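Re: your question about Proteasome assembly chaperone 1

S., sorry for the slow reply, the queue was backed up all week. Below is exactly what I fed in.
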Amino acid sequence: MATFFGEVLSVYSRAVEEDDDDLDAENEDEQIHREIEEKREVHIAWCTEVAQSLEGSGSNKLQCSDLIIAVGPNAAGFLSAYVLNTESWDAVGHASLWNERSRGSSRQSIAPLPGEPACLFYRHRDNPAVLVCQSTCYIAEDQLFQWTEKVFGCLQKRGLSVMVLSDSPVAEYKTPDYLYGSAVPFLRSLKSSASKSQALCPALEQPNILTGLPAAVLSHCQVHQIPAVLYQCYTDVISPDSITMETYKPVLLCLSKLVKLEPCLSADVLRKFAIITEAQSNLYT
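Result:
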């Protein structure tokens, strides 16, 4: 740029520097997003035998006729007490993930510790086509699609049937009628359009909706035309208890057709799978 006296001055434009700053900030934001996505990725780890079966099969799929998924402490406790209480089941895998509420299940290669919130897979020895999944860890909304895609991506969809058992607080149940205490806990069901089986309890009434992993699994089955039925238990107890677990007992009729179950358990045995907490009071301390 020339001045009035003919002096040539260099021109400085802040636009170039501002564009560079914006580009650097954008690249930094993208890197942060990538790191967050990697940290929140869901990983499925199988035992050596199952991993070899997946690699040996041409389609990288496991032959699975029935998948039973338990979501929540009471549903998982019910399966532990009534189904997984024999030596006929082998732990064959687990899902590892990290989020704000599930920090302990992020180890990819190490199975969760006993009592730790986790997502574990079991397979029946006499009938390897039957898989059981116990999920007691929180799965965030942005991880639900990953979970369903990766778990069902390992299974042969042809001939597959899915059953989901889920816990839910009764406060989330919407009804125009008053619920008496004796009516809780109770079961409600919801099926995919491909399911032709008769539900063992009344259907979930409108305007009630499903959320979390049960909703993601049922939606996946609906999209891929997989027969699936969900049994939602509405309870007023937060921690696992024997009464809520026994609410799932009607499904034993279906499960007994898949695998051999032990005779009905006594109340004392069932309580071993419940967490008993004594109320502490400091009124007189």
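Residues 276-285 have pLDDT under 50 and may be disordered. The longest helix spans residues 14-39.

Happy to talk it through on Thursday.
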